[in-house]
Amino acid sequence: MTNKELVILQGALEKLQTHFKHLISSPDTDLDKVAGTLDQVVDRLSDNYPYFDTDYAGQMLKPPHTIARLAYSLALYINPNNHALDGGRASSVMEKEAVAQIADMFGWREHLGHLTGGGTMANMEALWVGRKIHPTKCVVASEMAHYTHERISEVLGLKFEKVGCDLNGRMDMKALEGILNTTQVGTVVVTLGTTGSGSVDPLIEVLELQKIYKFRIHVDAAYGGYFKLAHNLSMYTQAQYETIHLADSLVIDPHKHGLQPYGCGCILFKDPQVGQYYKHDSPYTYFSSAELHLGEISLECSRAGAAAVALWATMQMFPLKKRGEFAQGISRCHEAAMKLNGLIREDDEFITVLEPELDIVVWAPNGESFSLISEASNKIFEMTAKQGLHLALIKYPVHLLPAHWDGIVKDQAYVTCLRSCLMKHNHLEKVEKIWKGIKSAYQH
User: Fold this and answer.
1) In the chain, what are the domains?
2) Which of 67, 194, 373, 436 could form a disulfide with 144 if both were Cys (CB 3.0 to 4.6 A apart)?
3) What's the N-to-C CA distance of the chain in angstroms?
4) Mean pLDDT in the chain?
5) Is the separation of the CB atoms in 100 and 237 below 8 Å?
6) How far apart are CA 171 and CA 398, in angstroms?
7) Would you state the pLDDT for residue 27?
8) At CB < 8 A and 24+ separation, what contacts does 321-326 make?
9) What pLDDT was estimated at residue 292?
């Protein structure tokens, strides 16, 4: 946070205080002791990767926008709780408005939804509603889907099956239909943007199978949801996003591509009638309003109203519009991934895995065997980190590798590859620098 940001925050705090006048008061605090403790915090926080910088091109970590940081900080002085209107009057309204805008991005004018602490809790609510509707039926997701779907199914007491993938890392439709013919399936989880490779499952084909087998479709777009606004995706990928409104529920994480601090997830249901499954009685809370409050449509109770304030403020600056400023930034992320993948593909010293569908690139140094490639990937990962360039690693299943890997000795069940999530809107301008750092690490 820059000094100018602090000045802006101070001005906003002074204006906020005028609305409450003498009612705002701080507890008696030894500010010298606070300052000393903060010095210790700074020392601890210095032991971190530079997540906010373009030289961090590893895991899916994206810095919140300035407006999100400031709005969140401002809201903390009130510290609203969006469990109910009593705890977060203004922030609850802001949450509903922000969630409605996200729903509208996906083509839903009518919906039921709210913010969550993250994608795990959001996905849990979707599968919980699925359990209410199909209490004894199985949940299925691809082998490349996020591991939490299997874990959540276990928590909910639901059977779970993995569906095999094709060589693009997408759910295989023959494998899915094989399960549908032998197992009673209540929910099919379709991932639009797997966290490992960024692959986009064939939602269109799953929708066709739904007509026959009558299961629910839950779209896990925690990572890839905002690419609905991108203008430069492949025809296949774009087509999947264009049919997302036909799903029964979906999850998106504003704390990934939505410029928000952790934790800010979002669960959306197409049919508002699923609200009936959330009904509960409480003998002691929230009698000040007859209006539906967020605590009545959420499994979570206390939730940070500050997260809603930050998201609302960000969307005032960056509306979710095609070709808008935010959409252009998302499109640039995909362009950056395609650019880096192109440089890798043209270099005989490296080998690609699959064409980026969103903004995740997976590749490896070339080698005679999977074990040697894995060893080299680890060395590059360590060498680039010493240079201040931070990548990530992924253990990629051998059976999903494409044909141009066939000549390599398969001496283990997986190969360790390098992976980059080019999530920052300005990564595009830094691709050549990133590539230069990778090449330098390889040559040493």
Assistant:
1) 89-317 (3.40.640.10), 325-443 (3.90.1150.10)
2) 194
3) 36
4) 93
5) no
6) 16
7) 65
8) 321/229, 322/229, 322/231, 323/231, 324/229, 326/226, 326/229, 326/259
9) 60
- Give the amino acid at 107: G
Among all chains, which residue has been given the structure tokens 């990548």?
Answer: 391
Query: In 133-275, where do the E strands start and end?
Result: 138-142, 160-163, 185-191, 216-220, 249-252, 265-269
> CA angle 125-100-245, nearest 5°?
70
Look at residues 346, 343, 351 and name the one whose alpha carbon lies nearest to residue 408: 351
**Rounded to the nearest 5°, which phi and psi values hold at 228?**
-55, -25
Six token digits for residue 126: 């979707």
Residue 84: the pLDDT is 82
Q: How far apart are CA 96 and CA 251, in angstroms?
A: 16
Length of the chain: 444
What does the alpha-carbon distance between residue 260 and residue 254 come to, in Å, rounded to a whole number? 6
User: How many whole angstroms separate alpha carbon 333 and alpha carbon 184?
Assistant: 39
- In percent, the amount of the chain with pLDDT more than 70 equals 95
Average pLDDT of the segment spanning 191-216: 98
Cβ contacts of 270 within 8 Å, gap of 6 or more: 108, 110, 111, 245, 247, 248, 249
C-alpha to C-alpha distances, 284 to 84, 288, 302, nearest whole angstrom: 13, 11, 15
Concatenated DSSP letters of 36-50: HHHHHHHHHHTSS--
Q: How far apart are CA 381 and CA 73, in angstroms?
A: 35
pTM tops 0.85, yes or no: yes
CA atoms of 350 and 278, how far apart (whole Å): 52
Q: Is 104 helix (H, G, I), strand (E, B) or coil?
A: helix
- Closest to 294 in 3D by CA, of 72, 77, 99: 99
CA pseudo-torsion sign 39, 40, 46, 48: negative
